């Protein structure tokens, strides 16, 4: 993020502190509880949004030249990179009888042989061989190649569409504001630390909801992070379907004695980005946490998380420092998951038809409006 942007955001934050009020939407909004319960709505979110929009599937560093990587997300995915560095993505499914082709999580490229009938594929997805091929004479071999899905790389990460479609235009997808911020973070060569794979019995949107407001921090996180943050104070902005929040820390007053040239946004608060449709990025002073949220069914969530560090910790002291930071982070997330589960139980009880978003929780409204817009629906009451 450019320093001029940091100064602008900190000035806006100081103005909020002076007023004693957070950034606000013009009015509260409401959301029908059925969006968290309706199985048809879940299927449409999965098929029409999460399988069609670019989603984060890996770090580029996880797929060196001449290697492959598989992922089980909303579809089985096979990523390969050739010796020249070209990255390709495929549905990890043999075209004969639909068997998952590659069972290994990662490795060096090879001829991929189906474990069922030994159909063989090259790393570029081309069908290489069929045992007793005379039984398939007359079939166009091109239709038997692996199904390719579009992939592209940005910010040191691999983004994929989990279904066939046109090439990804990530410049247009992210837009200039998000690109400027993330290029400023210079994370292309950062290293992965402490990857996580978390599953919880709640609707996937409840998981994202917990990240998008800081109204709950004072009560819900008394034991973990409340002491760090100014109560219910933040900046909220949207860029297309992406969102940038800034949650203000109690040490903000330190900048009163500093020249603007020394102001550092990351020191005095955490940036929280929601990248449409399902990735959350928490920018802390010396590391960045990614969480990508997938539904695991109508009432189940899977969160794939990892921390990015500028370099691999080389001393025990450095490793313990980042381990302690992540222990605090994931303790706070467990508090959020526990509350999300209580919300899930509560809304299933039928006590109310609506959930309410305060005017100082605008990112919640924007997130759900994004989903409405993508589905041609209108559930948010604003």
TrEMBL record:
Enzyme Commission code: 1.14.13.239
Domain of life: Bacteria
Domain Rieske: 54-160
SUPFAM superfamilies hit by this protein: Bet v1-like (SSF55961), ISP domain (SSF50022)
Keywords of this entry: 2Fe-2S, Iron, Iron-sulfur, Metal-binding, Monooxygenase, Oxidoreductase
Pfam families from the UniProt entry: Rieske, Ring_hydroxyl_A
Cofactor: Fe cation
Molecular function per GO: 2 iron, 2 sulfur cluster binding; iron ion binding; monooxygenase activity
Name of the protein: Carnitine monooxygenase oxygenase subunit
């Amino acid at each position: 993020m450019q320093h001029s942007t940091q100064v602008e955001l900190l000035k806006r934050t100081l103005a909020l502190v002076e007023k004693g009020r957070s950034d606000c939407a013009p009015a509260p909004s409401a959301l029908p509880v059925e969006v968290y319960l309706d199985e048809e709505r879940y299927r449409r979110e999965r098929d029409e949004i999460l399988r069609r929009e670019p989603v984060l599937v890996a770090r580029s560093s996880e797929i060196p030249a001449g290697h492959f990587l598989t992922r089980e997300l909303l579809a089985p995915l096979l990523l390969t990179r050739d010796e020249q560095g070209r990255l390709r993505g495929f549905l990890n499914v043999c075209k004969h009888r639909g068997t998952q082709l590659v069972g290994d999580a990662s490795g060096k490229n090879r001829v991929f042989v189906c474990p069922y009938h030994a159909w063989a594929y090259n790393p570029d997805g081309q069908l290489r061989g069929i045992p007793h091929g005379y039984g398939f004479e007359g079939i166009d071999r091109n239709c038997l190649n692996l199904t390719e899905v579009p992939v592209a790389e940005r910010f040191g990460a691999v983004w994929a569409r989990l279904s066939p479609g046109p090439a990804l235009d990530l410049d247009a997808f992210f837009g200039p504001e998000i690109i400027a911020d993330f290029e400023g973070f210079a994370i292309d060569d950062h290293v992965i630390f402490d990857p996580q794979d978390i599953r919880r019995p709640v609707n996937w949107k409840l998981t994202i909801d917990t990240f998008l407001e800081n109204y709950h921090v004072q009560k819900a996180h008394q034991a973990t992070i409340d002491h760090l943050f100014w109560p219910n104070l933040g900046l909220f902005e949207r860029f297309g379907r992406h969102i940038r929040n800034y949650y203000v820390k109690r040490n903000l007053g330190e900048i009163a004695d500093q020249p603007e040239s020394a102001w550092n946004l990351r020191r005095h608060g955490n940036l929280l980005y929601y990248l449409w449709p399902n990735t959350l990025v928490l920018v802390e002073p010396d590391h960045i946490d990614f969480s990508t949220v997938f539904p695991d069914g109508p009432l189940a969530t899977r969160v794939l998380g990892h921390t990015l560090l500028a370099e691999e910790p080389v001393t025990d002291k450095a490793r313990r420092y980042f381990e302690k930071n992540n222990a605090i982070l994931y303790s706070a997330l467990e508090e959020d998951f526990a509350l999300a589960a209580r919300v899930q139980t509560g809304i299933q009880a039928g006590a109310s038809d609506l959930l309410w978003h305060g005017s100082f929780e605008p990112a919640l409204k924007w997130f759900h409006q994004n989903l409405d817009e993508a589905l041609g629906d209108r559930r948010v009451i604003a």
